[in-house]
Amino acid sequence: MNKEKRERLEKAGFKLGSVQEFLQLTNEETAYVEVKLALAKTLSEQRKKSHFTQLSLAKKIHSSQSRVAKMEAGDPSVSLDLIVHALFAMGCTPRQLGSALAGA
Amino acid sequence: MNKEKRERLEKAGFKLGSVQEFLQLTNEETAYVEVKLALAKTLSEQRKKSHFTQLSLAKKIHSSQSRVAKMEAGDPSVSLDLIVHALFAMGCTPRQLGSALAGA
DNA sequence: TCAGAATATGTCAATTTTGACATTATGTCA
DNA sequence: TGACATAATGTCAAAATTGACATATTCTGA
């Protein structure tokens, strides 16, 4: 959108900048959540494939069963870092992470 | 390795479990760092491609120039979450993240 | 060579994430 | 059914991450 059109619209009362920003933020947030959920799902699958319980995985990465449950649920309180660490502990390769993300 | 062999080796003084654990932890850490650096590099490239300065990117994601510099350096004090958020702000798709990781 | 823009580095209070724990829910098998 | 393993949910103090700031360094034209 060019400057003139923006100025016309904003003069007409449209808070266009902030709407755009809002939409962009929600899109970013959507993408972030999708990535988190894709990794969470991969972790759950990989853990079961490796015949680990949430508790045994927790021990392996020096965490707790409840936190592993939250990882696999994609809970807002867990970081991507934690999920990624867990995935590597379950034997995933960076390439596998890449595949998981491609499907997000 | 089976239980008997492990017990023989441990009786002989090998702290096998912990050595294995140590090696595994360092491998996990290596993979994690590789992933972080791959994303950091992608962010730096994508930012330049989008003609943003570290400062303008910082504004866009409500962060600061210094933190963006640390993101692009893969500094230990920045989380994957922050880098991923920045990547999405620069217009990356989850699929692009996947490609970046595949090359890690 | 200089000035200004861009980037890097160090620090810190405030916010967020963490492991741990308690408890509840859901399977699962005899 | 009931005992037991596994998984889900809520809470919280401790630990890690964050934006902000100050400052230093590097880059880039003129």
Model description:
Chain A has 104 residues and is mostly helical. Chain A has a single domain, classed as Orthogonal Bundle (434 Repressor (Amino-terminal Domain)), CATH 1.10.260.40. Helices cover 75% and strands 0% of the residues of chain A. The first copy, chain A, contains six helices and no strands. Chain A has helices at 3-11, 16-49, 54-60, 65-73, 80-89, 94-102. In chain A, α2 runs parallel beside α5 (80-89) and α3 (54-60) crosses α4 (65-73). The longest helix of chain A has 34 residues, at 16-49. The two termini of chain A are 30 Å apart. The relative contact order of chain A is 0.13. The A-B interface holds A 24, 27-28, 31-32, 34-35, 38, 79-81, 84-85, 88-89, 93-95, 97-102, 104 and B 24, 27-28, 31-32, 34-35, 38, 79-81, 84-85, 88-89, 93-95, 97-102, 104. Chain A binds a DNA duplex (30 and 30 nucleotides) through residues 53-55, 58, 62-70, 72-73, 75, 77-79, 81-82.
Q: Please provide the count of β strands of chain A.
A: 0
Q: From the coordinates shown, what is the CATH architecture of chain A?
A: Orthogonal Bundle
Chain-averaged pLDDT of chain A: 86
Q: Biggest sheet of chain A, in brief?
A: none
**Looking at the structure, what is the overall shape of chain A?**
elongated
**Radius of gyration computed on alpha carbons of chain A:** 20 Å
> Helix coverage percent of residues of chain A?
over 70%
- CATH topology title of chain A: 434 Repressor (Amino-terminal Domain)
Terminal CA distance of chain A reads 30 Å
* Poorly predicted runs of chain A: 1-16
The percentage of residues in β strands of chain A lies in under 5%
Oligomer: homodimer
Structural class of chain A: mainly alpha
Number of helices of chain A: 6
